[in-house]
Amino acid sequence: MAYRRGNRRRTILLLLLLLLSAITLITLDERGDFGAIDTVRDAARDVLAPVQDAVSGVTDPIGDWFDRVVDANDLERENEELKRELAEARGDAAEGEAARNENEELRDLLDLRFVDDVPTVAAEVITASTGNFESTVQIDRGTDDGIAVGMPVVAGDGLVGQVSQASRRRATVLLISDSMSGVGARLIESQMPGVLVGQGNPDDLQLDFIDPEIEVADGELVVTSGVDDSKFPSGIPIGQVVSAERSGGALEQDITVEPLVDLRRLQFVRVMQWPVVGA
Amino acid sequence: MVDVTRRDGASLLRLLRLVFLVVVTVLAQTLVFPNLRVFGVVPDVGLVLAVAIAYSDGPETGALFGFVQGLAVDLFLNTPFGLSALAFGMTAFLVGILQTGLVRTSRWMPVLLGVGAGLVSGAIFVCVGALVGQERLFELDSARIVALAAAYDGVIAPACFPLARWALHRSSP
């Protein structure tokens, strides 16, 4: 047996040393004034980048197959839902043209062509988060491509998140669904501003600080508020309200928003080279 | 414990195999397992290997391996650097201590240890993380994530224990 009573003192010393080392590293990293940790992290990501490029061709199809196996029930349910929606859409076809025109006008009014005015960098999502307690993705562009920490990231339908770490060849995007994410947002009808916070779940965001007196309709669009010094340009679509509840005496409504972008299946994104506050 | 001061070939080979395991595990954790999520969670391969090493070689080797493995994983996470190292190292240490008191073993032991270690390590990660300012970790959903990840750890454990035995065996070079 490797562990003997005679070794107890050495074992306890080792345990204390490891504890102390870990607590020191955690404290230094949390205080954010020890740049060496970020340097090592960035270097590790850059070193791994060529390996990632080489193996992603092999691992991506395996991942897709695995997703299909694990999500088989979800896909079946989604298929049924899509069939139902298609039937409804056919029924609404007559109204479609008018609605499209109205939508175009609204977009013009609200300046929702969010990418037109800001230069962007196209990027491919390389991998999802390595851990279980964060909602991030890694993209195949870094500081060499003009990406910096804090830049907004969008996909075809709207806001995806914000760059949280960037090395020379890679960047990490903190998704809007991460519980550390908070986005200044406003409801499109009432123009009421609030803060959209992640719940650690790719399907649900929570819109905070909306007055109980404000009328909020299911399906109402939520966009970035773009107030002064905002981290995001104004008018980027984020999601749609799926439920709004008022409880007696509460100072704000309980509003759940579904992201417009499918955060589970991100493949290509655009990083907006938006001026970073404080940069 | 791996005695790095002993310059004999067998010890050196053992050390090299352990370093090799750390590298391979980090590659698997960062490149392969993010694509193999089940109910949105990934297993902690490094933790399970550390536990397997602690079970085979005692608390010191297990804690050291877990600590180094955790640091390597922390390089690729947004959570505080050192948090996984603390959780992996402490859990492996506990398993190493527990192993000294076991009088009999069973073929289900790797699975049980994998699940148990996943729960303990997850609890350490969440509690210490919340203490150092990551309050978001201290939410009800974290319990679900820890439980699912622990179950996944149990599933991969039977494959990790032979790897640990291979890395630790003392054959002549």
Give structural notes.
The complex is a heterodimer of chains A (279) and B (173). By secondary structure, chain A is of the alpha+beta class. Chain A has 2 domains: 72-110; 115-279, Thrombin, subunit H, CATH 2.40.10. Helix content of chain A is 35%, strand content 25%. Chain A is built from 4 helices and 12 strands; from the N terminus they run ααααββββββββββββ. Chain A has helices at 8-31, 35-70, 72-91, 93-110; strands at residues 120-128, 136-139, 152-155, 158-166, 171-175, 182-187, 193-198, 205-208, 221-224, 237-245, 254-259, 268-272. In chain A, the strands form 2 sheets. Chain A has a 6-stranded antiparallel barrel. A 6-stranded antiparallel beta barrel of chain A has the order 6-7-8-11-10-9. Chain A is globular, with a radius of gyration of 23 Å. The relative contact order of chain A is 0.12. Mean pLDDT of chain A is 82; it is low at 108-112. By secondary structure, chain B is an all-alpha fold. In chain B, 71% of the residues lie in helices and 0% in strands. Chain B contains 6 helices and no strands. Chain B has helices spanning 9-32, 45-57, 59-74, 83-100, 109-131, 140-168. In chain B, helix 2 (45-57) crosses helix 6 (140-168) and helix 3 runs antiparallel to helix 4. The interface between A and B is large, with 55 and 58 residues.
CATH fold call of chain B? Arp2/3 complex 21 kDa subunit ARPC3
How many strand segments of chain B? 0
Estimate nothing, just give the exact number of structural domains of chain A: 2
Oligomeric composition of the shown chains = heterodimer
Straight-line distance between termini of chain B: 19 Å
SSE pattern of chain B, N- to C-terminal: HHHHHH
Level of helix content of chain B? Answer: over 70%
Share of β-strand residues of chain B? under 5%
CATH class of the largest domain in chain A: Mainly Beta
Strand content of chain A: 25-35%
What would CATH call the homologous superfamily of the largest domain in chain A?
Answer: Rod shape-determining protein MreC, domain 1
How far apart are the first and last residues' alpha carbons of chain A, in Å?
A: 58 Å
CATH-level-2 architecture of chain B: Orthogonal Bundle
Largest interface: A-B, 55 and 58 residues
